[in-house]
Each structure stands twice: as C-alpha cells, then as structure tokens.
Design a protein that fits this description.
The protein is of the alpha/beta class and 285 residues long. 52% of the residues lie in helices and 12% in strands. The chain has an eight-stranded mixed β-sheet with strand order 3-2-1-4-5-6-7-8, sandwiched between helices.
Length: 285
Amino acid sequence: MTGAGVFILGAGRAGRGLSRALRASGVEVAGLHGRRAEPTPDAVTAGPLPAAAGRAAVVLVTVRDGQLDDALGELAAARLAAGAVVLHASGSAEPRGLEALRALGHPCGTFHPLVPLADPARAASLLRGAWIGTDGDEAAQDAAATLAAALGATVLRIPRGAKARYHAAAVFASNFPTVLAAVASQLLVDGGIDAGDAWGAVRALMRGAVANLDASTPSAALTGPIARGDTETVQKHLTALENDPPVRELYVALSLVAVELARAGGTDAAALGDIARRLTRYRRP
C-alpha cells in the first residue's frame, strides 16, 4: 500500500494486532486511534480524530460491533481523503453507517481476519497463511485484497446475503474449540485427574487433531469410536454423562454430525445406524 497508508480506528486487541502486523509487513500505518492515548508500544492516539485520518488511503475500523455505527458516523463527519476506502473488521455486522460514507464517495467493505487475535504480539505470525473475509464495493475489496497480500493472507469473498452464515462458521472454527477444550478438561477433572494434567493432555490431543486436519479431509481425519463403528463405547459415554445433561446434549449433537462424517469415510453403515438410533434417544425434542 502506497501513499498515506492505513489509519486504524479502534485500539483493542484486533486493532493493535493488525497495526503491528501491517507495520511488520512493510505497510505504512498512518495512525492507531482509540479511547486512551498510549505513546508506547503502539503509539495510540485518543480524542478527536487526528489529521492523519484525513490523509489515509484506507481507514480500517476495528471497534466492537456495538460501537461500529458511531465510529462510522465519526468518519462521515470528518474530512477523509477523496476516495479513501473505509473497511471494517466485523465478521457479522451490516452497519447502516456505511451508506453515508458511500454517499460521500468512499468505497466501503469488510476486512475480517479469520484469526483469533487475542494477543497483538502474535498477530503477524498468525495472519501469515490465514484467510481474510471480505465483501463490499469493488474498490474496497481490491484494497482489502492488497492488504491481505501484504500480510501473507488469502482473501475469502463473502457472498451477498451470506454474512451471518459465514460468521457462524467462523465461530464454530475459532470459538467452539476453546469451549470443547474446557468441557473435555472438566470431564477429566470430574473423574479425579489433576487440573494441570487434564489441561495439558487436552491441549496436546487437540493439537494432534488439528495436525490430522492439515493432512486430510474431515471424513478421513475423524478418529474414535464413531469412526470405528464402536456402538458399545458410544453407549458407555452416554451412560457416563447421564448426570450432566448439558454435556450429554453436546455429545449427542456433535456425535450425530460425526456419524455422517464416518459414513462418508466408509464406516460400516449398519453400525452407524445403530449408533445414530442410540444417540437420537437422548436428543431433546
């Protein structure tokens, strides 16, 4: 990106992470603006928008969804550079505030990193090889693709009208593994295993599962009793979880999906039919 570079509005974890990653990739970051000024290490400004915002070729808005329309309104009231592109980093929002910016001649769109940006210090390495969800005006998508390429990421264009489904998929892939890790660890602890050992074992197991996915498709990577058509083991699990209905519900829901993966992977159909019938008995109406 040449010219006046990128101005980032929103200095939370996503904004800080993207600021550091863009700088590390050689992209000029014209400024990072948030609620509180912080000279180091991210050079965050606060208060009224600085002059740098009005010189940027791209303004990237990284505030929370609930603050997005207010932030876009602030940009519409400011004097941005002619034709400056405005991108926001929300994977689910369809903010009304974009229309006012479009009316002022600013192409608008989405730049949503499919990366859990929990630690700004790790953002540059996480974004290399990652995917960025984009939508919006053609010029905005072109600018998003340029930024993604600088970061070493790949663009995933979100079809019109599919944003909620797209973001639900992102939640499954990014948020729910953390939830499943917590559930698995607690099951071990409830069975009498030391909490530290439980957490270490679960993390190692999940790393192995992700490594398998790197090498093959989900149906080929699936292991465990359902992939083997092992009805007896599945029944033991269901019995062991009878005093924990929410976890058993989760087990049933995920196992029914696993049955279909195992079917695609060639597991014995009769065994899978038996497993599915047993699981369905425990499914809430």
